[in-house]
């Protein structure tokens, strides 16, 4: 999927990949990746995060070409130390963080966005 998306971007297309979830992708790689010998807290092998980070880091805007946008969800507050470690590894890599509010969802208020906890990087570029 990622390689096809990159080729489409090179041909001038704007491509969006929806990933649900980066946490599950990292867990899957943690299961099948060869052990590196360096295990992070929560039982995550450092080697397991390499491919998900490359996937997520592939998003870009190519001058004279198209753009690749990757929207990914991350599991939080699951009670799993592994999920917390994975979330922290990816937290600073995105351009935007949209937090959802379970209390609003339980009240059937949609979209259940926690506006105060949500943010974007380089918001000054949005105001031009």
Summarize the structure.
Helices cover 34% and strands 14% of the residues. It is an alpha+beta fold and 128 residues long.
Secondary structure topology:
Layout: H1 2-10, E1 14-19, H2 22-32, H3 50-56, E2 60-61, E3 67-72, H4 81-91, E4 96-97, H5 102-106, E5 119-120
Parallel strand pairs: 1-3
Antiparallel strand pairs: 2-3, 4-5
CATH topology of the largest domain: Rossmann fold
Number of domains: 2
Summarize the amount of helix as a percent range. 25-40%
Distance between the termini: 34 Å
- CATH C-level class of the largest domain is Alpha Beta
Helix run count = 5
Question: What this model shows, in words?
Answer:
- By secondary structure, the protein is an alpha+beta fold.
- Strands 1-3-2 form a 3-stranded mixed β-sheet, covered by helices on one side.
- β2 (60-61) and β3 form a beta hairpin.
- The protein has helices spanning 2-10, 22-32, 50-56, 81-91, 102-106, and strands at residues 14-19, 60-61, 67-72, 96-97, 119-120.
- The chain is globular, with a radius of gyration of 17 Å.
- α2 (22-32) crosses α4 (81-91).
- It folds into 2 domains: 2-94, P-loop containing nucleotide triphosphate hydrolases (Rossmann fold, 3-Layer(aba) Sandwich); 96-128, no CATH class.
Descriptive terms for the model:
128 residues, alpha+beta, Rossmann fold, 2 domains, 14% strand, globular
């Amino acid at each position: 999927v990622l390689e096809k998306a990159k080729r489409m971007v090179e041909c001038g297309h704007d491509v969006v990949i929806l990933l649900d979830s980066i946490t599950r992708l990292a867990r899957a790689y943690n299961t099948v990746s060869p052990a590196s010998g360096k295990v992070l807290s929560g039982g995550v092998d450092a080697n397991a995060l390499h491919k998900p980070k490359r996937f997520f880091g592939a998003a870009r805007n190519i001058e004279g070409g198209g753009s690749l946008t990757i929207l990914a969800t991350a599991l939080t507050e699951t009670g799993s130390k592994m999920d917390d470690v994975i979330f922290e590894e990816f937290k600073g890599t995105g351009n935007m963080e949209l937090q959802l509010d379970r209390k609003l969802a339980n009240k059937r208020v949609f979209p259940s966005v926690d506006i105060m906890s949500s943010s974007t990087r380089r918001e000054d570029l949005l105001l031009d």
